[in-house]
């Protein structure tokens, strides 16, 4: 289990390029702290950012989101989302704008494509499980869970070799490889980034622990544990459907994931078929 304390967070702050919290998030946070925060006012703030507004409409109209009719107006979309949805979605969408390719040794386009695929499949899995998990949280977790990789790839010119090593070995996790090479890891860096942007605490904790299989040692069915399992299933589905291989840890946790999500192997196959149709459409 990764230990995070004030010294660790201070080291991340000093040694990595962490983008400051965007102005749109500050404005929404001030509005949310009002005695009676207005979703209509929130929609006006968000509407000023065309890219974010377009992305929200695309997500909420996606088949994976599950609405029965399409939404064309950003104010209407914000009413559907509510404050919890706003606080989860807007930071994750803004994050994609905050790093530039010229500073980074990995392909940001490929990185965000994969993160988006996992975020979308998270929503599909979330719709298929019997327990209700906030869909916006699942999207944000899918998009944000590996966000610490980008500052790592900016800081270390040879970071791509750590990724290649992780992809080609089952002896070490990416976290272990990063700690051995750099003395820190992308989960810790991602946790700091998410916390500094004031993402929901549960999402910050899941970013920190998304490689921690001890999350499933004691199956409780908590919201955090459900989100973790949805993420692990989605990572495996995306990897197996698009790349023809299971993720490194799937064989070790498959039974616990299915049990936590109250799914049978047949249920998993049904979800897999839905994901195949979605990713190949």
Describe the model.
Helix 2 (23-32) runs antiparallel to helix 3 (39-47) and helix 6 crosses helix 13. It contains 15 helices and no strands. It is globular and about 50 Å long. Helices cover 66% and strands 0% of the residues. By secondary structure, the chain is an all-alpha fold.
List keywords for this structure.
mainly alpha
Short recap of the structure:
The protein has helices at residues 6-15, 23-32, 39-47, 50-60, 74-95, 108-128, 135-144, 149-155, 159-167, 174-182, 186-196, 201-209, 223-243, 250-260, 265-279. The chain has 281 residues and is mainly α.
Number of strands: 0
- What class would the helix/strand composition place it in? mainly alpha
- Main sheet attributes: strand count, strand direction, barrel closure: none
Secondary structure: helix percent: 55-70%
Distance between the termini: 39 Å
Low-confidence segments: none
SSE succession: HHHHHHHHHHHHHHH
Beta-strand content estimate: under 5%
User: How many H/I helices?
Assistant: 15
Report the principal-axis shape. Answer: globular
Q: If you compute it from the alpha carbons, what radius of gyration comes out, rounded to the nearest whole angstrom? A: 18 Å
Return the average pLDDT rounded to an integer: 91
């Amino acid at each position: 289990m990764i230990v995070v304390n004030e010294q660790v967070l201070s080291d991340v702050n000093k040694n990595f390029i962490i983008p400051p919290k965007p102005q749109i998030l500050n404005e929404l946070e001030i509005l949310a702290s009002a005695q009676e925060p207005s979703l209509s006012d929130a929609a006006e703030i968000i509407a000023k950012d065309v890219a974010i507004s377009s992305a929200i409409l695309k997500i909420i109209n996606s088949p994976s989101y599950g609405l029965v009719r399409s939404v064309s107006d950003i104010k209407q979309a914000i009413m559907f989302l509510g404050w919890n949805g706003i606080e989860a979605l807007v930071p994750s969408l803004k994050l994609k704008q905050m790093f530039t390719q010229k500073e980074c040794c990995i392909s940001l386009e490929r990185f965000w494509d994969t993160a988006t695929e996992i975020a979308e499949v998270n929503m599909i899995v979330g719709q298929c499980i019997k327990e209700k998990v906030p869909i916006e949280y699942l999207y944000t977790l899918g998009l944000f869970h590996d966000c610490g990789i980008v500052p790592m790839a900016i800081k270390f010119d040879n970071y791509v070799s750590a990724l290649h090593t992780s992809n080609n070995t089952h002896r070490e996790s990416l976290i272990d490889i990063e700690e051995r090479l750099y003395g820190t890891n992308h989960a810790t860096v991602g946790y700091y980034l998410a916390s500094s942007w004031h993402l929901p605490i549960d999402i910050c904790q899941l970013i920190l622990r998304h490689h921690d299989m001890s999350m499933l040692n004691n199956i409780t069915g908590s919201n955090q544990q459900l989100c973790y399992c949805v993420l692990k299933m989605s990572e495996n589905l995306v990897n197996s459907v698009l790349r023809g291989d299971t993720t490194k840890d799937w064989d070790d946790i498959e039974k616990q994931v299915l049990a936590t999500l109250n799914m049978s192997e047949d249920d998993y196959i049904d979800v897999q078929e839905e994901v195949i149709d979605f990713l190949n459409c």
